[in-house]
Design brief:
By secondary structure, the chain is an alpha/beta fold. It contains six helices and ten strands. The chain has a six-stranded mixed beta sheet, with helices on both faces. Strands 2-1-4-5 form a four-stranded antiparallel beta sheet, covered by helices on one side. A hairpin with a 2-residue loop joins strand 9 (214-219) and strand 10. Bound molecules: adenosine-5'-diphosphate (ADP) and magnesium ion (MG). The site of magnesium ion has 4 residues, from helix 1.
Amino acid sequence: MENVVDIKNVFKSYQLGSTEVHALRGLSLQIRKGEFAALIGSSGSGKTTLLNLVGCLDEADKGEILIEGVPVKNLNENERSELRNKKIGFIFQSFNLIPVLNVFENVEIPLTIRKEISEEDRKKKVMTALKDVGLESFASQRPDQLSGGQRQRVAIARALVTEPSLILADEPTANLDSKTAHHIIDLMFELNQKRHVTFFFCTHDEKLMNRVQRIVKIKDGVIES
Ligand code: ADP
Ligand code: MG
């Protein structure tokens, strides 16, 4: 099967005062098309660092990352943002919604820079994404009028609206109670099945993992199993 993500022997360190923190130390991993894969590891194991590299939000010191066969380090800034916008959707732990925009407008954001998409098409895509997460009747609400689980569903719709090949989620359930957390994982799984979007998400909560097809364990910046 085709790899959506191919991570080859990647290293990443941070300078912290006078010490160097080795966050990733020669990590390799492939994510295949259509997979629903979880990255599990304790706090500080390198999960966020890895997702940020895969999402082209940061660059590796050494090694190579390919997204649908394209090595990201050869891309210039414009090509990189285009890849990010067209192929990758992001979901964050703290939802990252814009408080002054309503639900519809938050989901619309990634489409507004796509000049080739007409306004009518854009509206259709936003409503489809909202329907997919069960929030079509909340379009005109503001984030602060929603529960945590609903906010995360808005963020999922925003990640989904561009029809990306890959959705990355960094601890998407960490700010939710356990029942809501299960619902969010179930929703992501449903979208993976229905929309054939590849999901790669991380968590430190192993209890959430009963629906997950593939579990990858990370420890001290390398894949453990
Ligand atoms: P996780 O998401 O699994 O908790 P991270 O990828 O955030 O792990 O962090 C991996 C390691 O890198 C940790 O030791 C962390 O303290 C360190 N680290 C992460 N980001 C930075 C940064 N911006 N500056 C310095 N150290 C960092
Ligand atoms: Mg993290």
